Amino acid sequence: LLHVISVDPSPTKFWAVGRWAVRFDEKYEAQERYLVDLYRQKLTADAFLDWNHERQEFTGLLHEWWLQSCKDNAKVTHLIFEVNAAQRFVLQYDVFKRWVRKTGVQVVAHTTGRNKAYPELGVQTIAPHFQFGRVRLPFQFSMQYHKKRAVEAFIKELTRYRTDGGKGGAATDDCVMSYWFLENSLPVIKPRERK
């Protein structure tokens, strides 16, 4: 299994942060994608990742999830982060660079532009993964309230996403975009055959 965190940040609106496990077959093709955790709320860069000088330790959602992944024996190895103009600053912080060096997590920068609407690479390419049951969402009854709300928002976005930009779609698309970043990055981060 490949363990990944995918982030759709926003300077003013909701962030969507998903922790995923992806199973590959013997030919290194992605099979099931399991949503392990999902965060969808407003967030600041320092609440995402920061350094506590007094305790000499990293803090924030990213570090908490990374620590949990280590405890679960499912260590996150990749972080996919959208780096459009407003978000680019996060990856430049010294605390972020130090965290990457300490954890060994590989950062994959995703840039969203016109590719969002491309039929071959755009958001609509995620539909078959849901249609054929390759994406597994957590059982909602056993989840904490805020996680349950995040998964419900993800489902709402998935079922109402409009590629034509027309009315009647979901009010947000943060979770869909975060998942699309993962799918779009899989060819780059997937395990390679060892020779």
Total count of strands? 8
Percentage of residues in helical conformation: 25-40%
Order of helices and strands: EEEHEEHEHHEHEHH
The order of strands across the largest sheet is 7-6-1-2-3-8
Instruction: Tell me the strand percentage band.
Output: 25-35%
Dominant shape: globular
Mean pLDDT across the residues is 86
What Rg is obtained from the alpha carbons, in whole angstroms? 16 Å
N→C terminal distance: 19 Å
Count helical runs.
7
Kindly name the structural category.
Answer: alpha/beta
Poorly predicted residue ranges: none
The largest sheet is: 6 strands, mixed
What's the layout of helices and strands?
Blueprint (H helix, E strand, L loop, with lengths): L1 E7 L5 E11 L5 E13 L2 H4 L1 E3 L4 E3 L1 H11 L6 E5 L5 H5 L1 H10 L2 E5 L16 H5 L3 E2 L8 H16 L13 H16 L6
Parallel strand pairs: 1-6, 3-8, 6-7
Antiparallel strand pairs: 1-2, 2-3, 4-5
